[in-house]
Amino acid sequence: MANPTLLILPGDGIGPEVMDQVKRVIDWFGDKRGLAFDVEEDLVGGAAYDAHGTPLHDDTMKKALKADAVLLGAVGGPKYDNLDFSVKPERGLLRLRKEMDLYSNLRPAQCFDALADFSSLKKDVVAGLDIMIVRELTSGVYFGEPRGIFEEGNERVGINTQRYTEGEIDRVARSAFELARRRNNKVCSMEKANVMESGILWREVVQKVHDEDYPDVELSHMYADNGAMQLVRAPKQFDVILTDNLFGDILSDCAAMLTGSLGMLPSASLGAPNADGRPKALYEPVHGSAPDIAGQGKANPIACVLSFAMALRYSFDQGDEATRLEQAIEKVLADGARTADLMGPEGGTPISTVEMGDAILSAL
Amino acid sequence: MANPTLLILPGDGIGPEVMDQVKRVIDWFGDKRGLAFDVEEDLVGGAAYDAHGTPLHDDTMKKALKADAVLLGAVGGPKYDNLDFSVKPERGLLRLRKEMDLYSNLRPAQCFDALADFSSLKKDVVAGLDIMIVRELTSGVYFGEPRGIFEEGNERVGINTQRYTEGEIDRVARSAFELARRRNNKVCSMEKANVMESGILWREVVQKVHDEDYPDVELSHMYADNGAMQLVRAPKQFDVILTDNLFGDILSDCAAMLTGSLGMLPSASLGAPNADGRPKALYEPVHGSAPDIAGQGKANPIACVLSFAMALRYSFDQGDEATRLEQAIEKVLADGARTADLMGPEGGTPISTVEMGDAILSAL
Ligand SMILES: CC(C)[C@H](C(=O)O)[C@@H](O)C(=O)O
Ligand SMILES: CC(C)[C@H](C(=O)O)[C@@H](O)C(=O)O
Asked: Binding of NAD(+): at which residues (chains A, B) (predicted)?
């Protein structure tokens, strides 16, 4: 049988540096665990723009659609800030999400024991935190039409459209309920049904999917503003949070920051399963391209490595191997290995990106 | 000269209880400081729906438009959850905002020294926190058309429209810059210009207003998701945050929760100044109607009292009297008076809503 294929898109900023460590980890699983992948690499974001004048070349798009999983580093940087909207690095990522139809974005916000002191929140509020945000990723105001800046009378008006069909809500709701069953069986769905009709439809469809097919999962609904408050006040009340594209963007970043260590958080973006049960999938760290430290060898590769662990679990049905990798990382942290972003109140000498890669490999 | 007029709309849940204490404070300023107001009272939200079948009667709307300032308690409650969207309690509030054209919503997130332990954040992260969110309140996705739930093929689609004109952005930006000049002279504007064209226009207009008329104010721009993170990570980096209606809803609640004491936070919603320089204005606490404790005499009236202090400052040019009231409240807190919501880790016996009113009056 042919090896499964991985498309690697390191992207911009610290993307390439952290991805280098992931490649070592991938090789390790091929050598030591008999999990060989056919790996291809390509450009995305500013790197693609520099080479081709577009943040995602059509050929790359085709490769992504064919690959069994895509691993992405990060996109964007100040160099590209003044580019036209249509060719900004972000458009490359958004095109991947849309054309791969990756409607379910899984963003764990997990607080690592060894790092509980890093949070700006009190330790007892976040220690042991383990929530999963399921964010709809292919629709809503990110993609709705009409959109643009138009002339109206003698001034301009900026317009975007929030738009959700029943089918779009239904499918992402299912993915949240499925996930909850494998976790603590609780879903809290967030919208602004008190203000937006799209939120009313969202609430109604989520409730219907629940009542018809997931009555065993505990479901609650919360307005998104209250959701932001509750995340800050008492995040451990949540298990799975289900929300739309824009609310998910903000709430998942808020949740991520609760853990205090953004350099630790992976994400998975999943589409519909294909014939062999494997979903279209893209994995990427939650952190961005961090242009301020790019090229200095200080970036923390863990979020990107953990994104590969998510790939093992969600794309390749290798939950045990994913756990092996996650445990290696916990060990590394427990042993005190710290990149610069993980320098806590206690101080210490940071290790480099490569040294963190070394540590992970030796823990494996 | 006639007394200035106040329209009081206690609303639902704990609204009436907390407003009762505000009325005592208003009387005190009339008796002791020669600041007499002509006070009228009316219904809003569920209370108005129960009486008239609408969450805001046209007569009330007229009174609000005529009043020099409106004080509102809170709207909403589970009793009204199943009402049609068009008559939900929230619609009453939204109609007031829209028809009074209250485009600039000021939401201070301030951490009171005596209460710094209440925050779920570490004390050093929030002690002394004093930021002001300026939220656009009359446009954006809250009011944009088209909106609704429509049939499309064989399914339904929920649609809302995010919409900002240059003029709408310009005027709220000005109010943020004006405020910043009276504070620490810094504005951070938040949107999603990397994803939404309305955000691009927002950023451009804010920058233009700055460059033309407020070059002395320090201006920065931030994506709203990063804004949520930064609020959690290091909120004291901000002075004034300027943002749109929907982002403002979420970010201001997030900011409010950083302080740990929602029962303490007031807000002001201001429109254009009229001939005598007084803006159309509505003042309300940030907390909601808290149906779970309504009618039990336990609610904290401070946020509502502080909303009246904002009225003194922003509507009646009585900054000194506002400060007098704010200082009385700080004294009450320093003396240890605590309603149930302010029972911290150290415990103690909570006082009632009325007792807190008593304490404020005697501190005055
Ligand atoms: C880079 C940007 C387009 C993106 C988004 O807004 O979705 C990012 O913030 C994210 O959350 O993945
Ligand atoms: C009650 C509701 C309509 C309102 C809003 O969404 O604006 C509230 O959350 C607020 O922030 O004042």
From this structure: 77-90, 288-300
CATH superfamily placement of domain B1-106+264-364: Isopropylmalate Dehydrogenase (3.40.718.10)
A1-110+261-364 with A130-258: one CATH topology? Answer: yes
The rounded distance, in Å, linking the Cα atoms of A168 and B168 is 32
* Closest-approaching ligand to the CA atom of B95: 2
Residues of A in contact with B160 (CB under 8 A): 161-162, 196-198
Architecture of domain B130-258: 3-Layer(aba) Sandwich (3.40)
Nearest CB to B200: which of A85, A125, A252? A85
Quote the ligand 2 centre to B142 CA distance (angstroms): 10
Q: Where are the domains of chain B?
A: 1-106+264-364, 130-258
Does the C-beta of A90 come closer than 6 Å to ligand 1?
yes
Q: Is B229 in the pocket of ligand 1 (CB under 6 A)?
A: no
Pair of tokens at residue B14: 């704990």
pLDDT band at B345 (very low <50, low <70, confident <90, very high): low
Task: List, in order, residues 6 or more apart from B347 with CB less than 8 Å away.
Answer: none
Q: Which residues of B touch A202 (CB under 8 A)?
A: 158
Whose CA is closest to atom 11 on ligand 1? A249
Are A314 and A268 a contacting pair, CB within 8 Å? yes
Establish whether residue B90 lines the binding site of ligand 2, counting it when its CB lies within 6 angstroms of any ligand atom. yes
Closest by Cα among A146, A143, A169 to A246: A143
CA distance A299 to A326: 19
Distance from CA of A295 to the nearest CA of B (A): 22
The alpha-helical segments, DSSP class H, found in chain B are: 15-33, 46-52, 58-66, 89-99, 123-126, 166-181, 197-213, 224-233, 245-258, 302-314, 319-334, 353-363
Does residue B81 have a pLDDT over 70? yes
Give the integer Cα–Cα distance in Å for A339 and A350: 5
The structure tokens listed for A165 are 């069909």
The rounded distance, in Å, linking the Cα atoms of B15 and B76 is 10
Beta carbons within 8 Å of B308's beta carbon, 6+ residues apart = B22, B25, B26, B71, B283, B325
Ordered alpha helix ranges (H), chain A: 15-33, 46-52, 58-66, 89-99, 123-126, 166-181, 197-213, 224-233, 245-258, 302-314, 319-334, 353-363
Look up residue B267 and give its amino acid.
S
Query: What string of pLDDT tens digits covers the 364 residues of chain A?
Result: 789 999 999 999 999 999 999 999 999 999 999 999 999 999 999 999 999 999 999 999 999 999 999 999 999 999 998 899 899 999 999 999 999 999 999 999 999 888 888 899 999 999 999 999 999 999 999 999 999 999 999 999 999 999 999 999 999 999 999 999 999 999 999 999 999 999 999 999 999 999 999 999 999 999 999 999 999 999 999 999 999 999 999 999 999 999 988 889 999 999 998 888 889 999 999 999 999 999 999 999 999 999 999 999 999 999 999 999 999 999 999 999 999 998 876 678 999 999 999 999 999 9
- Which residue's structure tokens are 């931030």? B222
pLDDT of residue A345: 65
For B289-316, what is each residue's pLDDT tens digit? 999 999 999 999 999 999 999 999 999 9
Task: Sort out which chain A residues have CB atoms less than 8 A from B164's CB and list them.
Answer: 157-158
Interface size between A and B, measured as CB pairs under 8 A: 186
Any idea which architecture A1-110+261-364 has in CATH?
Answer: 3-Layer(aba) Sandwich (3.40)
Please return the burial class of A26, using the count of CB atoms within 10 Å of its CB with bins 0-12, 13-18 and 19+.
buried
pLDDT at B260 over 80: yes
Q: Residue A331 CB: number of other CB atoms within 10 A?
A: 16
Q: Assess whether A192 carries a catalytic annotation.
A: yes
